[in-house]
Design a protein that fits this description.
By secondary structure, this protein is α/β, with parallel strands linked by helices. The protein has 2 domains: 142 residues, Rossmann fold; 174 residues, Argininosuccinate synthetase, chain A, domain 2. The chain is built from 13 helices and 14 strands. Strands 3-2-1-4-5 form a 5-stranded parallel beta sheet, with helices on both faces. A 5-stranded antiparallel beta sheet has the order 10-9-8-13-14, with helices on one face. Strands 6-7-12-11 form a 4-stranded antiparallel beta sheet. Strand 2, helix 2 and strand 3 form a beta-alpha-beta unit. The chain is elongated. The N and C termini lie far apart (84 Å).
Length: 398
């Protein structure tokens, strides 16, 4: 039986070169697998043909945008997931989906090995390999760039020697990873922490000052934690993200410039653009503030942080992540209603909330006529609430 290797294929230089290199080094047929997670650029058929022209025995391409947004991005929105309280897990969310399709392809084509193009300094090697190990423990993994010091110069030389159908002259000063949920930019002059991002770093967002005189007010509707309408028009999760990418992006919403803690132990400067993600998470957080009971909301915030760390750290398929999924899903029962926000000057600012599931009681909250809160009960409550501290203070001051 012919040995086969399934390769996570992007269509770029490194993975195109990897097709022939893996075949030569291992004697195996290479099955290239590419997924459209909303990254834009070339169409899937172009990528499929390039893989075949570079020597792949077969090329599998799939439009997984709907699956990505509904099964990966939506849980992140419901978890209000922001790694280090800022990063909406743009790249981290796409990796387990790609892993799933790699494993499916390996099973379908009888492959014993999966290959990826990650380096040894980043998080993605962990996300790919830990994910593969969780779904298919018997599969082997190879990483040419990491394991064999495959540099860009070597890749270009290899492509030129074999006349591979790929442009080896195109070079970006940055390393970019993007999908429909956002865009991540690193390396180049950004590695000097003092250098400010220039306008060519950005693609999903406009300069926040460009539309300063034209704020955009938008109403986002949720049902049980799922965005279902924009300004009253029904949308899928994919459509909600795409529309908010455009509208929030026009006002510079979702720009992040941060130094983050990578899983491998180093700090890395990253510039992110995630206009739709930030707008949706902001709206969802505000609706939860209205509809989720206090103690449940407090505990959920702890769960959200841990959930985000697990996903960032490549543990999407771990037992703890699955258990936290169930908890977060249970908290969404009453998260139904509308959030109105203004997109302007780089910010998504909520200025209106309404929900039939609201826990906000006007008559309890008001200080005007109609106040139904019995303030006479507060004195005894305050006394009992502070009693343990008072007793301890007497002891310590004796």
């Amino acid at each position: 039986m012919t040995k086969r290797v399934v390769l996570a294929y992007s269509g770029g230089l490194d993975t195109s070169v990897a097709i022939g290199w893996i075949a030569e080094e291992t004697g195996a047929e290479v099955i290239a697998v590419a997924a459209d997670v909303g990254q834009g650029g070339e169409d899937l058929e172009t990528i499929r043909k390039r893989a075949l022209d570079c020597g792949a025995a077969e090329a599998v391409v799939a439009d997984v945008r709907q699956e990505f947004t509904e099964q990966y991005c939506l849980p992140a929105v419901q978890a209000n997931a922001l790694y280090m309280d800022r990063y909406p897990l743009v790249s981290a969310l796409s990796r387990p989906l790609i892993v799933k399709h790699l494993v499916d392809a390996a099973k379908q084509h009888g492959a014993s090995t999966v290959a990826h193009g990650c380096t040894g300094k980043g998080n993605d090697q962990v996300r790919f390999e830990v994910g593969i190990g969780a779904l298919a423990p018997d599969l082997e993994v190879i990483a040419p760039v990491r394991d064999f010091a495959w540099t860009r110069e070597k890749a270009i030389a290899y492509a030129e020697q074999r006349d591979l159908p790929i442009d080896v002259t195109k070079s970006s000063p940055f390393s970019v990873d993007q999908n429909v949920f956002g865009r991540a930019v690193e390396t180049g002059f950004l590695e000097d922490l003092w250098n400010a991002p220039t306008k060519d770093v950005y693609s999903y967002t406009s300069d926040p000052s460009l539309n300063a005189g034209k704020p955009d007010e938008v109403v986002i509707s949720f049902e049980r934690g799922v965005p279902v309408a924009i300004d009253g028009t029904p949308v899928t999760v994919l459509e909600a993200i795409e529309q908010l990418n455009k509208r929030a992006g026009e006002h510079g919403v979702g720009r992040l410039d941060m130094v983050e803690d990578r899983l491998v132990g180093i700090k890395s400067r990253e510039v992110y653009e995630a206009p739709g993600a930030i707008a949706l998470i902001t709206a969802h957080q505000e609706l939860e503030a209205v509809t989720v009971e206090r103690d449940l909301a407090r505990f959920k915030r702890q769960v959200e942080q841990r959930w985000g760390e697990l996903v960032y750290d490549g543990l999407w398929f771990s037992p703890l992540k699955y258990a936290l999924d169930d908890f977060i899903a249970s908290t969404q029962q009453h998260v139904t209603g509308d959030i109105r926000m203004v997109l302007h000057g780089g910010s998504a600012t909520v200025n209106g909330r309404r929900s039939a599931q609201s826990l906000y009681d006007f008559n309890l909250a008001t200080y005007d006529e109609g106040d139904s809160f019995d303030q006479s009960q507060a004195k005894g409550f305050v006394h009992l609430w502070g009693l343990p501290s008072k007793i301890a203070a007497r002891r310590d001051q004796a």
